[in-house]
Specification:
This protein is an alpha+beta fold and about 230 residues long. The chain has helices spanning about 1-15, 45-50, 100-105, 215-225; strands at about 30-40, 50-60, 60-65, 70-80, 85-90, 95-100, 110-125, 130-140, 145-150, 170-180, 185-195, 210.
Length: about 230
């Protein structure tokens, strides 16, 4: 059960890491709150999973924290460099490691033949009019699947779309679903607060040390371990 929760952490993050594109988009700086709901897993496991997440956005930067009391994980995504930095604090042990776009893809949705179809359907989410897109793709087993996403070109940045099945989407996903094995996570942005975010919020704290290659692999294995 604990391993499933750890897998969930990295899956949610990497499924919200979006691809840089040539789309015109307004500068956005602020804090968004994600509302999370779950199906496909036992109630005891779901009870331990977070029901909300807070994400900081600053132009092409994104920072998200998952807190488990004695341990927490921060992920900093950079849409310009296409790098993801993980900050892992477990008690007094504080390490960080970085993943490039190719490494990110290995940990995110293993999908191929992705095609995005834009529709005329819209809905209002957290006060913003969002547009619908259908993502058609082949899953890891080669089966055809389709996901629906509502996105906005006024919130976040399309430059944060790297490394996932949303690569190429014309805006920031505001409502979507994440699949982690049997677990399906429905994600909706429930609140948006502009401002109060600084570029220094995305720096690596001085009390974190870079993980060695072996430590990096151990941390990745910890995140992506399958439930026995």
């Amino acid at each position: 059960m604990k391993n499933s929760i750890k897998s969930f952490v990295i899956l949610v993050v990497l499924c919200v890491a979006f691809n840089s594109g040539s789309f015109a988009q307004k500068t956005f700086r602020g804090v968004i709150t994600l509302q999370l709901s779950y199906t496909g897993m036992d109630a005891a496991t779901i009870a331990q999973l977070p029901k909300t997440k807070t994400v900081m956005l600053y132009d092409n930067l994104c920072k998200e924290r998952t807190d488990y009391g004695m341990a927490y994980y921060d992920q900093i995504q950079n849409g310009d460099t296409k790098m993801v930095t993980f900050l892992v604090a477990q008690g007094e042990d504080k390490k960080y490691f970085k993943l490039n776009v190719e490494e990110t893809k290995l940990l995110a949705d293993k999908v191929t033949d992705t095609k995005i179809t834009y529709t005329s359907i819209t809905k209002t989410i957290a006060g913003y009019i969002c547009k619908q897109a259908i993502i058609n793709y082949k899953n890891e087993d080669g089966g055809a699947e389709a996901d629906t996403v509502f996105y906005s070109d006024e919130v976040g940045s399309a430059a944060l779309n790297f490394g996932s099945k949303y690569e190429g989407l014309k805006g920031y996903p505001m409502e979507y679903k994440v699949k982690a094995g049997e677990l399906i996570i429905s994600v909706t942005i429930s609140e948006i607060k502009k401002g109060k975010v600084k570029d220094t919020d995305f720096l690596i704290p001085s009390d974190f040390t870079e993980a060695t290659p072996d430590e990096k692999q151990q941390l990745i294995d910890q995140f992506t371990a399958k439930e026995e």
